[in-house]
Amino acid sequence: MTRSLPALTPLALLLAPVLGLLGGCANTDHVTMADPAAATAPAPTPPPRTMEWNTFERATRSDVWIGGQPSEQALDDFAAHHGATVINLRTDGEMEPLPGYADAVRARGMNYVHVPVSGATLDAERYQLVSDAIDSASGPVLLHCASGGRATYMWGMRLIDDGRSTPQTAIEWCHARRGSAWETGDKALMTFGQPETPDAADDGANNETDANEDS
C-alpha cells in the first residue's frame, strides 16, 4: 500500500525556506576574519649584511687586510691568521644593528679600534687616527667599513702618505680594487695633505650621505 505524505500547513510552507537557509549555514566551514593590524604590521628588519673571510684582500702590506663588515666566522678566521687588531670605519648609526660587535672582537683576543668615517669625514684627521692604530698594532690588521669602499680609500691615503703614490695613482689603485669610481673618495685623495679651503669644507658637508659612499 502506498502511503501519502501529509500535506504541509501554510505555516510550514512559510518556514521551509528559512529552515533551509539555517541548515545551509550550519554546514558552512568556519571563516576567520583577517586582522587589519596584522596586514599593516611592518616587515621584520633583515639581519645586517656581513662578509666572509674569503672576500677580504690584502692591502699593499701583507699584514693589513681590507674588506666589509666581517661575519662571526670571518672574525674566527682572522683570529686564526693571528689577527691582532680590527679597525672599524663604520659610523655610529651604521653600528646600531650590531651592538655587541666590539665585544665579539675582544672575545677573540683582538684589539678593537673604532674610527667612524663618512663621506664628509674621509680626511687627514681620521686618516691619522687609523694610521696610528695600524702602526701600533702588534700583528695583522683588519681594516673594514660596510663593504670595503671607505677602507680602500683610507688605504689610498696611506699610499700617498708613505710617498709610494701620487694622488692620481692612489685613485687608480682604489678604482681597480673597488671595480668602480667614487667621486667623494676621489676628491678626498686629490686634496689629501693640502690645506682645506672653505669651499672644500662646504662640499664635504654635502657629501655626508653620498649614496655611492660604500657600494
Which key terms come to mind for this protein?
215 residues; alpha/beta; Protein-Tyrosine Phosphatase, Chain A; five-stranded mixed sheet; 5 strands
Could you provide a short overview of the structure?
This protein has helices spanning 10-26, 36-39, 72-80, 92-95, 101-107, 124-136, 149-161, 167-178, 183-190, 198-206, and strands at residues 57-58, 64-67, 85-88, 111-114, 141-144. With 215 residues, it is α/β, with parallel strands linked by helices. The chain has one domain: Protein-Tyrosine Phosphatase, Chain A.
- The run of helices and strands is HHEEHEHHEHEHHHH
Assigned CATH superfamily: Protein tyrosine phosphatase superfamily
Low-confidence sequence ranges: 203-212
The level of helicity is: 40-55%
User: Terminal Cα separation, in Å?
Assistant: 93 Å
Q: How much strand content do the residues show?
A: 5-15%
Query: What is CATH's topology name?
Result: Protein-Tyrosine Phosphatase, Chain A
Q: What is the number of E strands?
A: 5
Radius of gyration: 33 Å
What is the number of helices? Answer: 10
Mean pLDDT: 83
The CATH architecture term is Alpha-Beta Complex
The side-by-side strand order for the widest beta sheet comes to 1-2-5-3-4
Description:
With 215 residues, this protein is α/β, with parallel strands linked by helices. The protein has one domain: Protein-Tyrosine Phosphatase, Chain A (Alpha-Beta Complex), CATH 3.90.190.10. It is built from ten helices and five strands; from the N terminus they run ααββαβααβαβαααα. The protein has helices spanning 10-26, 36-39, 72-80, 92-95, 101-107, 124-136, 149-161, 167-178, 183-190, 198-206, and strands spanning 57-58, 64-67, 85-88, 111-114, 141-144. Strands 1-2-5-3-4 form a five-stranded mixed sheet, sandwiched between helices. A hairpin with a 5-residue loop joins strand 1 (57-58) and strand 2. Helix 7 (149-161) packs antiparallel against helix 8 and helix 8 packs antiparallel against helix 9 (183-190). The longest helix has 17 residues, at 10-26. Residues 203-212 have low confidence and may be disordered.
